[in-house]
Amino acid sequence: MPPLELDPETMRRIGYRVIDTLVDYWQSLPERPIGTRPTRDAMEALLNEPLPTTPQPFEAVLDEFLMKVLPHVVKVDHPRYFAFVPAPNNYVGVLADTLAAGMNIFVGTWMVGAGATQVERVVIDWLRQMVGLPESAGGLFVSGGSVANLVGLAAARQQYPEALQRGRVYYSDQTHSCVARALRILGFREEQMCVLESDSQFRLPVERLTEQIRRDREAGWMPFCVVANAGTTNTGAVDDLNALADLCAAENLWLHADGAYGAPAVLTEEGARLMKGIHRLHSLALDPHKWLYQPMMAGCILVREFDHLRQAFHILPPYLQDKESGVRGVDLCDYGVELSRGFRALKVWMALKVFGLEAFRQAMEHNLRLARVAEQTLRTMPHWEVVSPAQLGIVAFRYAPPHMEPEACDSLQRALVNTMLEEGFALVSSTVLKGRTVLRMCTLSPRATEADVVETLQRLDRHARRLAHQEGAE
After folding, report:
1. Is 327 left (phi over 0), alpha (psi -120 to 50) or beta?
2. How many CB atoms lie within 10 A of CB 58?
3. pLDDT tens, 337-385?
4. What is the pLDDT, as a whole number, of residue 251?
5. 229: CB partners within 8 A, 6+ apart
6. Which residues is 141 bridged to in the sheet?
7. Rounded to whole angstroms, how far apart are CA atoms 151 and 337?
8. Backbone φ and ψ of 187, nearest 5°
9. How far from 368 is each of 393, 406, 438, CA to CA, in Å?
10. Hey, which of 67, 132, 198, 309 would disulfide with 279, CB 3.0 to 4.6 Å?
11. What is the CATH number of domain 106-342?
């Protein structure tokens, strides 16, 4: 038998073992601890070893993964993982990824991957319709929001030839850090990135932005791009997309939005209300591996004029000349940073076909309801402040007993995150809003229940009162 080959019976046996492992994991997940954060030294002692030179049975390697690796990762698909932005997935998507990896399907060129390319084009068009962009729009799948924002901003830069020399980009202090990183990668200097303080609702202030653009033009800058938020990581805030679209139209600016987590919620009543104007964007980052419940990695960039991506990325070296068919829009390697592209769209295609769009909408409505339950519960608990009400599945809050100094209160919030992680029942995360550390709860798992939310908050309350008592604040 050739090297790296297994006989069919072995392939079936170990394949069934993996499927059984996944199903058992899936069914037992609500009863499992959320995960741990071990020390680096502990992980090196557990896992460091010489490069393997002799074969081992697959079952032994799988068992090693289950015993040494899995217990030491925080399970972002856990129903009670309320930290950061959860990544709940679906089993159809898992199987789709297995198919895509097992057949090693390439989606860089039409010549090699026509069927897979067409599936990606179909799914992109479904997402285009979902957010209301015109038929001229298009896009492609990428690894996640960081690359999606990078690709969208590269398209913007390409449309303004003088942008690198004297262009200015505008966004609020609530914008994800990947936007600043993308701008650095694209060659923009720090002084070209204008970060405006958000308003009382943590949104980009349109009047202040308008005035800043006027002053910058007078100072010799060339304003060319505004980055809006369609659901911030901190609070779920959505910038006024219609007002920003009006401003960008009047000023001839590109309007990009980071909707990596929030944009899919346009399917819901709350999301549609908050995201009025999303159809007017020039580009939009959207992650199906967040609020469309797909396995990582499934990010997406949508651009109002699909050919703008080709203008930014197309290069034809001699060794790729055979791929050219004379048909635009089918060689997806020409529209982004990757030539080697896996079949990321397959999981979204299969999951939408198997479950139907309405199931996704119902799951999102459930998530939004859980955030409202969290807010309502917090408002009944003494010494807890709701800093930002439930919005797009996120509520921000803070334990603030009356006699505790603000700095000590900040430290207490961070201690609560660590305490919850050590306990293992659930996890929330912290952030800083208006200079103060707060906790945030993001309820994106379709498997989470109201009881999960309430019990998590009750445990937080018990830990907070204990820690505050130790500090002498209660």
Report:
1. beta
2. 16
3. 999 999 999 999 999 999 999 999 999 999 999 999 999 999 999 999 9
4. 98
5. 171, 172, 174, 175, 176, 203, 204, 237, 238, 239, 257, 258, 259, 262
6. 300
7. 7
8. 100, 10
9. 5, 31, 20
10. 132
11. 3.40.640.10
Instruction: Say if CB 52 and CB 60 are below 8 A apart.
Output: no
Considering only CA atoms, which of 277, 266, 209 is closest in space to residue 242?
A: 277
| Residues in CB range of 176: below 8 A, 6 or more apart | 145, 149, 229, 232, 233, 258, 260
219, 191 in Cβ contact below 8 A? no
Residues 383-439 have pLDDT tens digits of 999 999 999 999 999 999 998 999 999 999 999 999 999 999 999 999 999 999 999
| Cα–Cα nearest to 140, from 278, 350, 338 | 338
Q: Would you say 447 and 30 are in contact if contact means Cβ atoms under 8 Å apart?
A: yes
Coil, helix or strand at residue 201: coil
Locate tokens 């954060």: which residue?
37
Long-range Cβ contacts of 316-325 (<8 Å, 24+ apart): 320/109, 322/111, 323/109, 323/110, 323/111, 323/112, 325/110, 325/111
Output phi, psi for 168, to 5 deg.
-130, 140
Strand (E) or helix (H) holding 161: none
Question: How many C-beta neighbours within 10 Å does residue 146 have?
Answer: 20
Q: How far apart are CA 385 and CA 373, in angstroms?
A: 15
Structure tokens at 76: 């972002």
Location of structure tokens 């911030």? 232
